[in-house]
Amino acid sequence: MERSALQTAAAIRAGETTALAACDAAIARIEARDGAINAVVIRDFARAREAARALDAEGPDDRPLFGVPMTVKESFDVAGLPTSWGVGVHRDNIVDRDAVAVTRLKAAGAVILGKTNVPVRLSDWQADNPIHGRTNHPLDPTLTPGGSSGGAAAALASGMVPLELGSDIGGSIRVPAAFCGVWGHKPTYGALSDLGHRVPGTDGASAALGVIGPLARNPEDLAVALDILADIPLPRATVDLARPRILLLTAHPSARVDSSIIGAIERVGEALAAAGATISSARPPIDLAAQHADYMRMLGIAMTRGGPARDGKVATLSHWFDLLDSQARLQRAWSLLFERFDAVIAPASGVNAFPHIAERNVARRTLTIDGEDTRSASSSPGRGSPPSPTCPRPACPSGSTRAACRSACRSSPTVTATTTRSPSPRCAID
Question: Catalytic annotation on 313?
Answer without folding.
Answer: no
